[in-house]
Amino acid sequence: MSILVDKDTRLVVQGITGREGAFHTAQMIEYGTRVVAGVTPGKGGEWAAGSVPVFDTVREAVDATGANASIIYVPARFAPDAILEAADAGIPLVVCITEGIPALDMLKVRAYLDQGASRLVGPNCPGVITPGEAKVGIMPGHIHTRGSVGVVSRSGTLTYEVVYALTLRGIGQSTAVGIGGDPINGTSFVDILCLFENDPETRQVVVIGEIGGADEERAAEFIATRMSKPVTAFIAGQTAPPGRRMGHAGAIISSGKGTAAEKIAALTGAGVRVARHPGEIAEMVAALA
Amino acid sequence: MKLQEFQSKQVFGRYGVPVPSGELASTPAEARAIAERLAGPVVIKAQVLVGGRGKAGGIKLAASPSDAEKVAGSILGMDIKGMKVRKVLVDPASDIRKELYLGMILDRSRRRVVVMASSEGGVDIEDVAARTPEKIVQVALHPFLGIKEYQARELAAGIGLPREQIPAFAEICRGLYEAFMASDADLAEINPLVITGSGSLLALDGKMVLDDSGLFRHPDLLAMRDEDEETPEERQARSAGLSYVKLDGQIGCMVNGAGLAMATMDIIKFYGGSPANFLDVGGGAKADKVAAALGLILSDPNVESVLFNIFGGITRCDEVARGILKALADTPTKVPMVVRLVGTNDTEGRAILQEAKMATAETLMEAAQLAVAAALGQGGAQ
């Protein structure tokens, strides 16, 4: 068991013939992910990454290969369309790596997805990995190891940092999920915490948040009232100045809201152990393992 | 990206929001000519991207064209919160009966565009929210429906707007919403929206903040970017494709990834140092970007040491190490550097840097402590 992706995941890659798409498709296949199809409009009938058939539409790819998850590597101006296409083709899990999608586009995409059954992870995220089973994303596979710690994060490289520290201590991960750094995304901390709580393989969870928005506060509320498994957290941006966007579109303290201090207080109040710096996370997890 | 007042009102005007018929001047003589054309008292308004212009003396009335020339002369060149006034807006002075507030924001938590209105216009809306929250009414708009007539009427009723102004108010709500959506805005604000002596509504001031991710489809709005309003560092960072925020500490940071960059700042603080900047050099940490980023960091005279924190991941660390050395060759400096490299081929990467006599570290904790010690002049890094 694990969450979201496993060895039975049949992945279609949207934007498979692009530079990023082609590179990461090869990496995912090398990791062992079952990449069953690719989609690039106008290139149907071709082959990519050696043995992956390319289709013009996601619907054709699903009909021909039974794909049940999609990953999107298309540029920001086409990505909203790609997400909606995957959802309309009935794909239950859509992971969008693309950074820089206009927020008002995501507003409509999310409202549309809320009416259907597809889950979107991202955009602007590193993806999802279940170590040893499937890598649906751009994270370096080799730093992960199979185990029982669930990881969920708004960041990319900071997640790698934490995962790698866990691996070096011999602590494996059940699944690591990047929910992305955009202000409007498809999946929240609470959504993933709920999945980890119900996953028998996951014994404890690491939450890596950052400044901006109130997703961490909602996570704190969920942890306090609905979670039995222990949670360790870190919030990036304790030294970030207000009113300035820190790289991620969603990482901004606006009108004094969304500070690291507020989030840390909410999590601490919910009984979560909050690390003071990323180096402490693995140590705190190890104490419970 | 923030728009200036005159630009925001220009955009609002395109969507049917009534705005004053003023013009922009960059010299006192131009201000005089505009006042002559407007033939009446005018208000001269400094165009700078900071709040509190009025209190700083950047907004003044002028009774005649010669007065306008004199007032414009006193405002142009003024320094308002570190911003030099280069342009003034010359608007016809309005006969104000009542000041209202109307604004729209993208509320990320509710995932809705939210419209806010208040009978308390002309003051900072955040102050109103803090002191008398009952005086702000809000409606959240469904993404598929936009703003409906009844919602505008509800807002009007909520702020006690006289019945005769309601149709015009509803029209302004619709226009502002269209301007918001068509510009990929994060915020669009009319403060104050005034009821004039003759009973009409007029958007006296305007503010827009645009979503940078949406700018690719708005070349007209992108052309409104005022490079004079950016610091040289911000301009340099933007043209190099780097995400950079200057801070006031002593330790320069170069990191790949926004979350890791913030965490690196945090750990510097944890070990008693203070970060000089936020900088995300992007995935891959390519040599040209590393060089541009290093130039940027070193242009800050407060920087006493530089910490590179690169999580290589799929990128090969030996390539990153060569990129760093190339960047250093192009940008000679005496500022001590500490490099922390992790990922594929990190041992080789560190060996390359050590051969070039650079201080390297394996963990972020070790690297942060070395960088802090170097900044405080306690050695540890070369």
Strand order of the largest sheet of chain A: 3-4-2-1-5-6-7
Secondary structure category of chain A: alpha/beta
The greatest inter-chain interface is formed by:
A-B, 57 and 52 residues
- Rg from alpha-carbon coordinates of chain A: 18 Å
Return the average pLDDT of chain A rounded to an integer.
96
> Total helix count of chain A?
9
H/E topology pattern of chain A:
EHEEEHEHEHEEEEHEHEHEHEH
| Helix residue percentage of chain B | 25-40%
What can you tell me about this protein's structure?
The complex is a heterodimer of chains A (289) and B (382). Chain A has helices at residues 19-31, 58-65, 79-88, 103-113, 157-168, 189-197, 215-226, 260-269, 279-288, and strands at residues 10-14, 34-39, 47-48, 52-55, 69-72, 93-96, 119-121, 127-130, 134-137, 146-153, 173-178, 204-210, 231-236, 273-274. Chain A has 289 residues and is of the alpha/beta class. A seven-stranded mixed sheet of chain A has the order 3-4-2-1-5-6-7, sandwiched between helices. A seven-stranded mixed sheet of chain A has the order 9-8-11-10-12-13-14, sandwiched between helices. In chain A, helix 7 (215-226) links the parallel strand 12 (204-210) and strand 13. With 382 residues, chain B is an alpha+beta fold. Chain B is 37% helix and 25% strand. Chain B has helices at 5-14, 28-38, 65-75, 125-131, 149-158, 166-182, 219-222, 232-240, 258-270, 287-298, 317-330, 346-355, 364-375, and strands spanning 2-3, 23-25, 42-46, 59-62, 79-80, 83-84, 88-92, 96-107, 112-118, 136-141, 185-196, 201-203, 206-210, 243-246, 251-255, 277-280, 305-311, 337-342, 359-361. In chain B, the strands form five sheets. In chain B, strands 1, 8, 9, 10, 11, 12 and 13 form a seven-stranded antiparallel sheet that branches. In chain B, helix 8 packs antiparallel against helix 10. At the A-B interface, helix 4 and helix 5 of A face helix 9 and helix 13 of B.
